[in-house]
Amino acid sequence: MNTNNRAASPLAPEWLAVPADLNALHQPLWAGDVDRNDDGELAIDGIPVSELQRQYGTPLFVMSEGDFRARARAFSDAFNNAFADICGGVDVYYAGKSFLCSSVVRWVEEEGLRLDTASGGELAVAARAGIPGADVALHGNNKSDGEIHRALDMKLGRIVVDSLDELQRVAKIAEGRGEQAKVMLRLTPGVHAHTHEFIATAHEDQKFGLSMAADSTDQAGLSAAEEAVAAATGYAGIELLGLHCHIGSQIFEPDGFAVAAEKLLRFLAAMQEKYSIVLPELDLGGGYGIAYTPVDTPRPAAEIAEAMAAVVRSTCADLGITSPRISIEPGRAIVGSTTFTLYEVGTLKTVRVDADTTATAGNQPENVTYPRRYVSVDGGMSDNARPVLYDADYSAILASRTSTAAPELSRVVGKHCESGDIVVRDVYLPEDVAAGDLLAVPGTGAYCWALSSNYNYLARPGVVAVRDGSARLIVRGETEEDLLNRDMGV
Ligand code: LLP
Question: What is the pTM of this model?
Answer without folding.
Answer: 0.96
